[in-house]
Design goal:
By secondary structure, the chain is α+β, with helices and mostly antiparallel strands. The protein is built from one helix and 13 strands.
Amino acid sequence: MAVNKMKKCKTCGADVAKSASKCPSCGAKLKRPFLGTIMIIVGVIVLLSAIGNIAGGKDEQKVIKADETAAIVTEKAASAETTTVEETTKPAAVMEANIGDTAEADGVKLIVTKIDTTKGSEYNRPDDGMEFIHVYVKVENAGNNNIDVNPFYFKMETSDGQIKDQDFRAIVDVEKNQIQAVTLKPGGNVEGIVGFQVKKGDEGLKLTYSTNVFSDEPSIVINLK
């Protein structure tokens, strides 16, 4: 065996191979070469590092997938919310009819049976160039829940774009026939008069009715001329 591959046993002094772990003469254990120990340590570190990278990569993939899933859920929720908001804010179609026709919206049926105009009485006259108009209406609950009916739900739209509230001077002489503020059960109805003050001879008058007290938009429009 070549000399450069041999070393002395520190216990008995016999020549032994550098790669030997035990002296063949005395049986004493021999220390591994320092370089070999270093290589083993380095190999263990590399192996642990590789295992850590694999595990970390899987965790990172899980995090990415979780983030992607959360983003998709958030996007769908935002889309659903936008759709809900659009549907909520989208104005409902207005039901339009003429005198004698029955108009229905949101479970409310409305019919104007007739109209008449008046110059008032001796002590209650309209303003110059104006006249009182009486509109005879009937409201019926065609839905499944109770509804409220109120004279303030009625408004008058004029040909020049004005929207007028009921004028109580217009109904002083027919006050007992004014439509009352009531609650109607399903199938119930109420009749009465709503009165307004308008320009004489206005041919573009429209009676509007809102089924939603919180909305400025009418649900029903009745052409009066």
